[in-house]
Design a protein that fits this description.
7-stranded mixed sheet; 268 residues
């Protein structure tokens, strides 16, 4: 017999979110940092993100989960000051190197896990941006509460869309292993709704599929959890990519291999 829910607003979306992440395997971001720094290049995700952000040259901005600076650096050229927060010392090292190389001096960095972010430490900023950084955060309601306090004008967040990680999921199915799954974006929207935050939801229209110079680059691109694969699974991954990728004009590609991102944002 199905349970009848009298008030949909009482559904424990935060609990469902945490349950989805109960078995997640945290990534070693220090170890991953060199690859991210090497691979970072402008793509249509960045174009879509920057087209949606509402920024003023006098704004201060908090970039949550800033990583090696693929978003932080371009934003710093458009606002007065950026605070980049990340849990990886190596990521922040690469961010600071990239800023120095480009003569950018309006970025401050904070070494801290996203889960520990607090208004008492950060204070007020005009805009908060969380680009591809909140999907794996377990205490999501606590973090969102602090981010909402910190922002004076806008909060912009991007999370996985329903078509993200298609070829990765297909490979995991071939191996017979459980795909590392993340909560759907509707969980996120409903958590915000129950918090009294009535957000806008937009899906990025991304057309570009990823291209690689080699099979090695296709393997080591940050999408596959090589740190969790055995040597045999890595061998099977190479064979899988050789089978599904097309080689043309000196590049490997698969038209299904593209990102799918949802932007959730609100005005204070």
């Amino acid at each position: 017999m199905k349970q009848c829910i009298e008030n949909p607003n009482e559904v424990d979306w935060t609990g469902f979110w945490a349950e989805k992440l109960a078995n997640k395997n945290d990534k070693d971001w220090d170890k991953a940092a060199p690859g991210f720094y090497k691979r970072t290049r402008k793509d249509d995700y960045q174009d879509a993100l920057f087209d949606k952000l509402i920024l003023d040259e006098n704004d201060t901005l908090l970039d949550v989960g800033c990583g090696e600076g693929s978003v932080t650096i371009p934003i710093a050229k458009r606002v007065k000051k950026v605070i980049g927060l990340d849990s990886s010392p190596k990521m922040l090292e690469y961010l600071e190197k990239r800023a120095d190389d480009q003569g950018i001096d309006n970025i401050e960095t904070i070494l801290k896990p996203i889960e520990e972010i607090s208004y008492d430490e950060i204070g007020d900023v005009d805009v908060v941006v969380c680009s591809r950084s909140l999907n794996g955060i377990v205490p999501i309601e606590e973090v969102l509460t602090e981010l909402n306090k910190i922002a004076n004008k806008y909060v912009f967040i991007t999370i996985f869309g329903p078509e993200n990680k298609k070829i990765e999921k297909d490979f995991d199915k071939e191996l017979g292993i459980r795909t590392e799954d993340f909560p759907d974006y509707n969980y996120f929207f409903n958590i915000l709704f129950n918090m009294g935050i009535y957000a806008n939801v937009e899906r990025f229209d991304l057309n570009n599929y990823r291209e690689y110079d080699s099979i090695d680059e296709a393997m080591d691109n940050g999408k596959f959890r090589l740190d969790l694969y055995s040597d045999e699974e890595k061998r099977l991954l190479r064979s899988y990519l050789e089978r599904i990728l097309t080689y043309e004009n000196s590049k490997y590609y698969n038209v299904k291999d593209k990102a799918d991102w949802i932007m959730v944002w609100w005005k204070k």
